[in-house]
């Protein structure tokens, strides 16, 4: 088997495998509809607790326009790191200080009571 034939065979195999993940327009619309319903339930006070998509109020009311001023604190608790950022915005310029703290393994695997 020459290289070109092997590559053609591999490409055909990849295309066949990818076809299993192709969605029809109907399937995409159904998924979108279900997701939108779950988001609406996640936002509603009376259905939030049972929704598979939890939505929390962020108090972000608008998109940034470049005129923002002040110091802002950002906290990001990820899987293995805790990131702390202080961002100072003024007249279209910014300064940022950040620190990353590793989360100890015993804290990642502890019980709720610990």
From TrEMBL:
Entry keyword RNA-binding: no
Pfam families the UniProt entry points to: Hexokinase_1
GO biological process: glucose metabolic process; glycolytic process; intracellular glucose homeostasis
GO CC aspect terms: cytosol; mitochondrion
Catalysed reaction, written as an equation: D-fructose + ATP = D-fructose 6-phosphate + ADP + H(+); a D-hexose + ATP = a D-hexose 6-phosphate + ADP + H(+); D-glucose + ATP = D-glucose 6-phosphate + ADP + H(+)
Keywords: ATP-binding, Glycolysis, Kinase, Nucleotide-binding, Transferase
Family indicated by similarity: Belongs to the hexokinase family.
PANTHER family: HEXOKINASE (PTHR19443), HEXOKINASE TYPE 1-RELATED (PTHR19443:SF16)
Protein name: Phosphotransferase
